[in-house]
Amino acid sequence: MPPTGISRATSQSGRVAEELLSRIRAGRYAVGDRLPSERALAEELGVSRPVVREALRVLVMLQVVDVQVGRGTFVLAEPDLTPSLEPRHPTELLDVVDVREIMETGALRLAATRANAGAKRAVAQALARLERAVEAGEDTADLDRKLHAAIVEASGSPSLSRIWQELEREISVSIRISPKGLFMSQEILEMHRLVAAGVTDGALEEALAAAERLHADNRQFVEELTRGERGARTARARR
Question: Number of structural domains, the chain?
Answer without folding.
Answer: 2
